[in-house]
C-alpha cells in the first residue's frame, strides 16, 4: 500500500524499479572471427551435398518445468538435462574442429552460461567466433505460433537476441529462424522474422496433404510473402520444410536414447557394418534429393533433449562422413559434411533459383486425416488469459520505469523491477506454455513464474487493495493508468459493501456511479473467497501514457436500494447512442443487433453448445480429443439450453441482461453507456464429466450476414487472413474433419461480413474458432477432456485446482461490433488494443494530500489514431527502446490506412530526446547495418526521412528506435 507521503504519481513510479542488464561485457576476440556464412565447410558443386546438422530440441517446459529440464531433475518423468547437453557438446566440439552444433533456446543457454568459469566462457566464445557453435533462432524460447500475441513474441525475441549480442557480438547473431516443433505456422511470425533480419526460416510440421503435394512438386522450399501491407521484400522470408520433422533419418539416430546400430568399422570383427550403413545412407540421401530442388539437402541429426552424451553422436557422425565420402573415389557422387541451417541456406541462395511464393499461412495443422491440431488454440483458457493480462501489465511496468526516471530506482519497496516478469513472459511464449500443451504441474509453474513477475512489479498491492480497501474503506482513491498513446474511457467495477458513493474525477467534477448487487454467477465463481455484496460501477477516463485519479467516498451503508436490483425478465431491447440489441422474449436469447449511427441491423442470436469429444472408440480413427487435438465425435454440437433464465439491470452506467443457461454456463450481455461494442461476458465451468463424456464448449453467433463460406481471423494479433470453409489457398483439400478441419486460431479478433455488414468479435485471449454455416461464427471457450491424445503430454486435459476441485471455472469476454465493412477496422483496431493493453487500476486509502498531482500524461500530445506505441522500455542508463507501429492494414480503413508521421522530439513530456538510432524489429542490429540475403528481389531504396526526428509509418509498419534521453 502507498504511504500518505507519496503522491500517486511518485507512488506509481516508486513501485517500479528500473532495470539494468547485468550481462557480462563481451571481450574482444583474439583473432578476427570467421563466423556466419564464412565459416561454412566447402561443398562439392558437381555432387549431392548432404548437410548434417547436429542439434537438440530443448523445450522451455513441457513434461517437466524449465528448471527441471535445465538441471535434469525428475528424470523419472522424462530423461532430459540441458546443462549436461551443453557441457557435453562443448567438450565434443573441441575434439574436432570440423564438428558443428547449433543451439536455439536462449532461456537455457543463459542459465548455463552464468555458471561457467571465465576460461570456459572464453572457450565457448572461440567456438562461436569460428562458427563451430552457432546460434539459430536465438529467442528466449521457440514460441508457439497459434496462441501468442505479436507484442510478447517481439519482446521474448528481443530478450534472447540481446543476450546473444551482448555476450558474443555479431557472431552471436542468428541468421536463421528455426521453429522445428510448433504445431502450425503463422504468417505474422514469418513477417516478424523477416523484420528481425533473418535470412531464412526452417520448420518441421505442416499439414500432411500439403507436404505430400509439395514433395511431388518439389515445393518444400519457398519464399513466404508474409504481409499484404508491407512493401516487399520487407516481410519476405525464405522458408524451408525439413525432411523428417526434426529427427534424423530412420536408422541413423546415435543418441544414448536411441537404439540404432553404431558404425562398427573394424573389418577384423564379425559384425562389421560399414558397407550396410553407407548403402542405407546413400539410399536415403538419393530419395530425399528427389523431393528437393537443388543438389543440397539437409538432415537434422538430433531430437528432443539429445546430445546429453554427445560423444555417441559425434563419434558415429565422424565415421559416417569419412566412409560415405570415401566412396567418392569409387564414383559416388554424394558428399556429406557437418553443417548448420545457415550454411545450408547459403547454398540454396547460391543456387540462384526462383522459388515459389506463399501468401497464406500453415494453419490448421493435421498429421493425419482425423488428427487436426486445433484443440490447443483453446486449451487451458485460464492460463491463456493470465498470459495476456501479464503482457499488459509488463508493458505498463516498463513504461513506468521510463517515465519514472532515476527516482524510480530508489523506491521504498525494496527489490522490484520488470526483469522477472520479462523472463516469465518470455518463457510463457514457448510452444508448450501458452499453447496449453504441457503437463498440469508445468502449467502451474508457468503461472507461478508470472505471479512472481507481477510481484516484482508490485502488483499484489492492486489485488490486496481490490479485496480489502475498496470493500472496507469510507474514503479511497482510484488511480487509472493508461498504457495507450491515446485517451481511453474504461468501465470500473469494484466489489463494495456500501450502497451509495460519491465519486469525483481529477478536476473535482462529480462522476455518475451506480451500486448493484453482486450477481449470483459472480458470487458462485468466488467459491467463498471475497464477501462484498455489491459492485460499484463508474466510467473513468485516462490520458495517453498517463493516469487520472478519482476519489471515492462512502455515502451510505446497508442493503442496496430495491431499484438497483435486476428485474426477472428480458427487456425488449437494450440500447445506447451507438448500438441497439433486442432479445427474443420466449427464449431470452439475443435476436438482433443494430448500429444506430450507420442505421444497419442484422438478425443475431447467440447460444452455448458443446461438442462431444471423441474417446477414440470410432470406426474412422482411434484419435481422441486432447490437449493438442480437437476431434468431436459428431459434427452436431449439443445445445446446453434452448432458453436462458433472464435478469435485467438498467441504470445510467450500464445495461445488463444476465442469462443463466445451466449450473455451469451463464452470461452477461452488457452495454455500457458510451461504448461502441456489445460485451458478452461468459462464465463456463465446472464442465460436468459425470456422464463420462469429454466436452468442448463453444459460444456460437448465428446472424443474417451472407458470409458465403468465408470468415476472417487475425494472425498473432496483427494482420487478418481470410478463411474459406473446406478450402486451403495453396492446395486441393480433401476435407476429413468437417468441424476440426475448419478451425483456426483467433488471437484477438474474428469477423464475418457481406457487402453491407461486418460483425466483428474481439476476444480477450487466444481461442479457436470457425464458421461452419454461413452467417455463423463459433468460438471455443473451454475444454474438459478425459483422454490423452497421444502426442506426448501423457495427461488428459482435465483442469482442477484447490479452489475448484470439481473443475476449473473460466470467465471471459467477447466484444461485438457491427459496422459497414469499409469502416469496421476503425472500431475493432482500437477496441482490440484496449483489451490487449488495458488500464492499470491501483488504490490508495484515505484522503490524498492536497498537493497531489491527480492527472498526468507522459506524452506531449495524443498520437495520431493510426499509431500504436508498441514498446517504451528502459534499455541502458540513458537509452530507451521505442517501437512505433502503424496499426492499420493497407486499404483497411479509408481514414486511417494512410502513412502517418510522428516527431520523436515532440513525443514525451518528461524526456528530452537527444539522439536516435533506428534498429531492426528485434533490436539486435542497427538498421543501417541490416543486410539480408536477397532472393532475386531488389531491395527498395530507402526514401530518406525528411529529418531524423520526423518518422513516417506506412500501414502495418513497426519501426524500432533506440533513443538517447535526458529526464526533464
Ligand atoms: C542468377 O540467375 C539470373 C537469371 O535468372 C542471372 O541473370 C544471374 O546472372 C544469376 N546470378 C548468378 C550469381 O549466377
Ligand atoms: C460485507 O457484507 C458481507 C455480508 O453482509 C459480510 O459477510 C462482510 O463481512 C462484509 N464486509 C465488511 C468488510 O464489512
Ligand atoms: C551488439 O553488441 C556490441 C558489443 O558486443 C555492440 O557494440 C553493438 O552496439 C550491439 N548491437 C546492438 C544493435 O545493440
Ligand atoms: Zn517442442
UniProtKB/TrEMBL annotation:
Q: Which InterPro entries match?
A: Gal_mutarotase_sf_dom, GH38_C, Glyco_hydro/deAcase_b/a-brl, Glyco_hydro_38_C, Glyco_hydro_38_cen, Glyco_hydro_38_cen_sf, Glyco_hydro_38_N, Glyco_hydro_38_N_sf
How, per the record, is the cofactor bound? Binds 1 zinc ion per subunit.
Q: Which reaction does it catalyse?
A: Hydrolysis of terminal, non-reducing alpha-D-mannose residues in alpha-D-mannosides
Q: Does the keyword Glycoprotein apply?
A: yes
This protein's GO CC annotations: lysosome
Annotated GO biological processes are: mannose metabolic process
Which superkingdom is the protein from? Eukaryota
Cofactor(s) the protein requires to work: Zn(2+)
Question: What SUPFAM superfamilies does this protein map onto?
Answer: Families 57/38 glycoside transferase middle domain, Galactose mutarotase-like, Glycoside hydrolase/deacetylase
Alphabetically ordered keywords of this record: Disulfide bond, Glycoprotein, Glycosidase, Hydrolase, Metal-binding, Signal, Zinc
Q: What is its EC number?
A: 3.2.1.-
- Stored PANTHER family: ALPHA-MANNOSIDASE (PTHR11607), LYSOSOMAL ALPHA-MANNOSIDASE (PTHR11607:SF3)
Query: What family, per the record?
Result: Belongs to the glycosyl hydrolase 38 family.
Entry protein name: Alpha-mannosidase
Amino acid at each position: 500500500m502507498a504511504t500518505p507521503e507519496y503522491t500517486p504519481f511518485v507512488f506509481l513510479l516508486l513501485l517500479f524499479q528500473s532495470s539494468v542488464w547485468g550481462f557480462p561485457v563481451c571481450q574482444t576476440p583474439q583473432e578476427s572471427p570467421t563466423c556466419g556464412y564464412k565459416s561454412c565447410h566447402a561443398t562439392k558443386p558437381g555432387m549431392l551435398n548432404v548437410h548434417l546438422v547436429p542439434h537438440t530440441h530443448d523445450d522451455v517446459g513441457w513434461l517437466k518445468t524449465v528448471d527441471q529440464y535445465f538441471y535434469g531433475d525428475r528424470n523419472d518423468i522424462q530423461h532430459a538435462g540441458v546443462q549436461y547437453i551443453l557441457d557435453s557438446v562443448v567438450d565434443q566440439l573441441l575434439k574436432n574442429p570440423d564438428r558443428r552444433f547449433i543451439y536455439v533456446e536462449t532461456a537455457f543457454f543463459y542459465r548455463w552460461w552464468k555458471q561457467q568459469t571465465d576460461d570456459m566462457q572464453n572457450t565457448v566464445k572461440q567456438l562461436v567466433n569460428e562458427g563451430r557453435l552457432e546460434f539459430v533462432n536465438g529467442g528466449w524460447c521457440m514460441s508457439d505460433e497459434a496462441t501468442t500475441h505479436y507484442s510478447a513474441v517481439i519482446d521474448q525475441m528481443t530478450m534472447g537476441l540481446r543476450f546473444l549480442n551482448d555476450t558474443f557480438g555479431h557472431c552471436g547473431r542468428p541468421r536463421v529462424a528455426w521453429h522445428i516443433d510448433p504445431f502450425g505456422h503463422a504468417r505474422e511470425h514469418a513477417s516478424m522474422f523477416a523484420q528481425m533480419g533473418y535470412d531464412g526460416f526452417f520448420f518441421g510440421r505442416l499439414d500432411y496433404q500439403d507436404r505430400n503435394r509439395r514433395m511431388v512438386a518439389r515445393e518444400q522450399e519457398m519464399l513466404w510473402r508474409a504481409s499484404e501491407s508491407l512493401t516487399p521484400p520487407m516481410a519476405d522470408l525464405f522458408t524451408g520444410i525439413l525432411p523428417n520433422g526434426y529427427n534424423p533419418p530412420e536408422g541413423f539416430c546415435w543418441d544414448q536414447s536411441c537404439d540404432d546400430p553404431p558404425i562398427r568399422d573394424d573389418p577384423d570383427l564379425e559384425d562389421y557394418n560399414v558397407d550396410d550403413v553407407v548403402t542405407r545412407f546413400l539410399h536415403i540421401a538419393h530419395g530425399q534429393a528427389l523431393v528437393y530442388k537443388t543438389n543440397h539437402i539437409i538432415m537434422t541429426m538430433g531430437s528432443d533433449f539429445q546430445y546429453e552424451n554427445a560423444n555417441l553422436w559425434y563419434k558415429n557422425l565422424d565415421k559416417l562422413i569419412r566412409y560415405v565420402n570415401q566412396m567418392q573415389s569409387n564414383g559416388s557422387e554424394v558428399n556429406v559434411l557437418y553443417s548448420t541451417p545457415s550454411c545450408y541456406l547459403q547454398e540454396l541462395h547460391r543456387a540462384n533459383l526462383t522459388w515459389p511464393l506463399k501468401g497464406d499461412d500453415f494453419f490448421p495443422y493435421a498429421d493425419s486425416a482425423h488428427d487436426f491440431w486445433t484443440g490447443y488454440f483453446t486449451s487451458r483458457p485460464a492460463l491463456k488469459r493470465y498470459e495476456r493480462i501479464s503482457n499488459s501489465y509488463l508493458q505498463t511496468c516498463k513504461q513506468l520505469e521510463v517515465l519514472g526516471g532515476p527516482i524510480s530506482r530508489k523506491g521504498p519497496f525494496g527489490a522490484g523491477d520488470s526483469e522477472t516478469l520479462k523472463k516469465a513472459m518470455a518463457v510463457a511464449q514457448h510452444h508448450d506454455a501458452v499453447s496449453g500443451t504441457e503437463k498440469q504441474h508445468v502449467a502451474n509453474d508457468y503461472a507461478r513464474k508470472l505471479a512472481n513477475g507481477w510481484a516484482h512489479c508490485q502488483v499484489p498491492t492492486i489485488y490486496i487493495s481490490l479485496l480489502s480497501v475498496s470493500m472496507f474503506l469510507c474514503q479511497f482513491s482510484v488511480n487509472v493508468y493508461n498504457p495507450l498513446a491515446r485517451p481511453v474511457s474504461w468501465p470500473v467495477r469494484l466489489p463494495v459493501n456500501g450502497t451509495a458513493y460519491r465519486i469525483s474525477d481529477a478536476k473535482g467534477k462529480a462522476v455518475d456511479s451506480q451500486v448493484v448487487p453482486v450477481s449470483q454467477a459472480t458470487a458462485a465463481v468466488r467459491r467463498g473467497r471475497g464477501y462484498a455484496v455489491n459492485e460499484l460501477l463508474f466510467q473513468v477516463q485516462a490520458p495517453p501514457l498517463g493516469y487520472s485519479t478519482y476519489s471515492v467516498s462512502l455515502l451510505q451503508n446497508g442493503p442496496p436500494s430495491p431499484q438497483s436490483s435486476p428485474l426477472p425478465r428480458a427487456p425488449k431491447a437494450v440500447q445506447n447512442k451507438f448500438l441497439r440489441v433486442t432479445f427474443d422474449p420466449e427464449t431470452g436469447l439475443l435476436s438482433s443487433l443494430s448500429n444506430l449511427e450507420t442505421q444497419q441491423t442484422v438478425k443475431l442470436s447467440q447460444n452455448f453448445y458443446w461438442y462431444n469429444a471423441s474417446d477414440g472408440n470410432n470406426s474412422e480413427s482411434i484419435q481422441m480429443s486432447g490437449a493438442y487435438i480437437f476431434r468431436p465425435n459428431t459434427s452436431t454440437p449439443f445445445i446446453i439450453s434452448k432458453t436462458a433464465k433472464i435478469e435485467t439491470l438498467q441504470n445510467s452506467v450500464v445495461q445488463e441482461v444476465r442469462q443463466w443457461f445451466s449450473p455451469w454456463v451463464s452470461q452477461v450481455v452488457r452495454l455500457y453507456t458510451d461504448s461502441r461494442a456489445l460485451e458478452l461476458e461468459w462464465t463456463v465451468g465446472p464442465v460436468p464429466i459425470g456422464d463420462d463424456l469429454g466436452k468442448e464448449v463453444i459460444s456460437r453467433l448465428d446472424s443474417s450476414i451472407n458470409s458465403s463460406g468465408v470468415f476472417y481471423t487475425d494472425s498473432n494479433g496483427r494482420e487478418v487472413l481470410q478463411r474459406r470453409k473446406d478450402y486451403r489457398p495453396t492446395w486441393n483439400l480433401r476435407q476429413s474433419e468437417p468441424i476440426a478441419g475448419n478451425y483456426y486460431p483467433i488471437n484477438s479478433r474474428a469477423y464475418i461480413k457481406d457487402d453491407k455488414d461486418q460483425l466483428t468479435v474481439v476476444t480477450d485471449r487466444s481461442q479457436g474458432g470457425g464458421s461452419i454455416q454461413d452467417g455463423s461464427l463459433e468460438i471455443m471457450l473451454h475444454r474438459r477432456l478425459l483422454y490423452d491424445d497421444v502426442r506426448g503430454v501423457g495427461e488428459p486435459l482435465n483442469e482442477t485446482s484447490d479452489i475448484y476441485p470439481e473443475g476449473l471455472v473460466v470467465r471471459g469476454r467477447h466484444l461485438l461490433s457491427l459496422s459497414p465493412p469499409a469502416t469496421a477496422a476503425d472500431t475493432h483496431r482500437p477496441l482490440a488494443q484496449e483489451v490487449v493493453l488495458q488500464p492499470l487500476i491501483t488504490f490508495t486509502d484515505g484522503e490524498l494530500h492536497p498537493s497531489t498531482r491527480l492527472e498526468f500524461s507522459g506524452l506531449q500530445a495524443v498520437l495520431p489514431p493510426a499509431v500504436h506505441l508498441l514498446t517504451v522500455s528502459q534499455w541502458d542508463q540513458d537509452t530507451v527502446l521505442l517501437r512505433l507501429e502503424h496499426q492499420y492494414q493497407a486499404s483497411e480503413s479509408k481514414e486511417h490506412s494512410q502513412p502517418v508521421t510522428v516527431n520523436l522530439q515532440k513525443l514525451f513530456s518528461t524526456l528530452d530526446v537527444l539522439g536516435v538510432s533506428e534498429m531492426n524489429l528485434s533490436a539486435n542490429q542497427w538498421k543501417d547495418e541490416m543486410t539480408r540475403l536477397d532472393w532475386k528481389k531488389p531491395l527498395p531504396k530507402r526514401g530518406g526521412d525528411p529529418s531524423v526526428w520526423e518518422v513516417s509509418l506506412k500501414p502495418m509498419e513497426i519501426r524500432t528506435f533506440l533513443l538517447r534521453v535526458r529526464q526533464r
